[in-house]
Design brief:
The protein has helices at residues 43-51, 75-81, 98-103, 112-122, 127-130, 141-154, 171-185, 221-232, 235-241, 252-260; strands at residues 3-11, 18-27, 32-36, 60-65, 68-69, 83-86, 159-163, 190-194, 206-211, 214-220, 243-244, 247-248. By secondary structure, the chain is α/β, with parallel strands linked by helices. It contains ten helices and twelve strands. The chain starts with a strand and ends in a 6-residue tail after the last helix. It is globular. It has a six-stranded mixed sheet with strand order 6-7-8-3-9-10, sandwiched between helices. The chain has a four-stranded antiparallel sheet with strand order 2-1-4-5, with helices on one face. It has a two-stranded antiparallel ribbon with strand order 11-12. Helix 4 (112-122) crosses helix 6 (141-154).
């Protein structure tokens, strides 16, 4: 496993309450792993703790990356190991050129233009159109998110933590982002996807459902999605959404049976 989270408990800033409670799950190298759950369930808190942000230090538990205990490592140390985080709200470095911004995290500056072009093309931004533009109000929210993602991809990390990259995007753009995630996966980068829009999780291979700070299930994503839909009472949404490569993940009568059970999956 590339990432192992073991019995992680994360308190609030004042240490008086618990946000994430005894959470455990593994992320396979080369996969897309989605963390889903209702708002306020602790998804982003978990992401920030894995990245090593100081205000999200676990009260107990361990985080392992490639078999190494990183629980007490700094953000810088984790970054050097190949972990990076793309924020829910793209960075606003006004006046910086797109080329300069995307190239900031590239260690080997040789053939820099080619590397920036490659990163922009991966996120479906034509290099000729964007490389000499500046990060300012002329860029849409979707363009800013793509540019930030291009900067992350250019670093060539081993694990990319995406904190609600679909936030504020319309359905058409969201579908495009799902295609981008698959392109990134083919570059041997692992994605930990935090999302509040469960349907975007269908791009994932595996998933973990967090419900009010507790992990309910970690499994192949369709099973995680089915558990979420049952818990939230979203049967019709489940039937519309649970498709892979144009085919339903489960027969409708199976979904009906699961929803009719009083305590499924327990």
């Amino acid at each position: 496993m590339l990432l192992e989270v073991k019995n992680l408990t994360i308190p609030t800033f004042d240490q008086k309450c618990v946000i994430v409670n005894d959470v455990s799950f593994d992320v396979r190298e080369g996969s897309i792993h989605a963390i889903i759950g209702p708002n306020g369930s602790g998804k982003s808190t978990l992401a920030y703790s894995i990245m090593g942000l100081s205000n999200y230090k676990p009260f107990q538990g361990k985080i392992y990356f490639d078999g190494i205990d990183i629980t007490d490592m700094s953000i810088t140390e984790r970054s050097k190991m190949g972990i990076t985080l793309a924020w829910q709200e793209p960075a606003r470095i006004e006046g910086l050129s797109v080329k300069k911004y995307v190239s900031l995290g590239i260690k080997d500056k040789s053939n820099l233009g080619e590397k920036v072009t490659e990163a922009l093309e991966i996120v479906n931004l034509p290099s000729k159109k964007y490389v000499n533009r500046y990060i300012d109000n002329s860029l849409s929210g979707g363009e800013r998110k793509r540019i930030e993602l291009a900067a992350v991809v250019a670093m060539k990390p081993r694990l990319i933590i995406l904190d609600e990259p679909d936030s504020g995007l319309d359905v058409i753009i969201t579908e495009d982002f799902m295609n981008i995630f698959n392109k990134i996966k083919k570059l041997n980068m692992t994605i930990l996807l935090i999302t509040h829009r469960e349907e975007i999780g269908m791009v994932a291979d595996y998933g973990t459902l967090i419900w009010h700070g507790d992990v309910l299930i970690t499994d192949l994503f369709p099973y995680v999605m089915l558990r979420y839909c049952k818990k939230a009472g979203l049967k019709e949404f489940c039937k519309r959404t649970l498709y892979k490569e144009g085919k339903p993940c489960f027969p409708e009568d199976y979904i009906d049976r699961i929803f009719n059970e009083e305590e499924p999956f327990e």
